[in-house]
Amino acid sequence: MIFKIIILSLLAFMIYNLFRAMIIMNKNDPNQPSMSKFIGRRVIVSVALIILLLVGILTGVITPNPHP
User: Fold this and answer.
1) pLDDT tens digits, residue range 20-38?
2) Cα-based distances in Å from 4 to 11, 15, 43, 49
3) Closest alpha carbon to 19 in 32, 3, 35, 2
4) What is the pTM of this model?
């Protein structure tokens, strides 16, 4: 159960960074942090999420659906 909570929290963090980057892109304020900072965080979290899912499937913590 804790594994699924970690996955959901990482997905929520990805969505948060996506919207933060969108807000900065629309404001176009030079004093704000760079949009690439939030996009980079999103990419790092997505890579970590894929690795976490692969480890979960390989260890048997997560069982994939056998029927598509």
Assistant:
1) 888 888 887 778 788 888 8
2) 11, 17, 20, 11
3) 35
4) 0.79
- Tell which residue, 15, 20, 18, has the closest CA to residue 32: 20
Q: Where does residue 16 rank: exposed (0-12), middle (13-18), buried (19+ CB within 10 A)?
A: middle
User: Element (H or E) spanning 66, and its range?
Assistant: none
Q: What confidence tens digit (pLDDT) does each residue in 37-66 have?
A: 888 999 999 999 999 999 999 999 988 888
Contacts 24+ apart (CB under 8 A), 38-44: 41/13, 41/17, 42/14, 42/17, 42/18
Angle between helices 2-27 and 35-59 (to 10 degrees): 160
DSSP structure string for 3-52: HHHHHHHHHHHHHHHHHHHHHHHHH--TTSPPHHHHHHHHHHHHHHHHHH
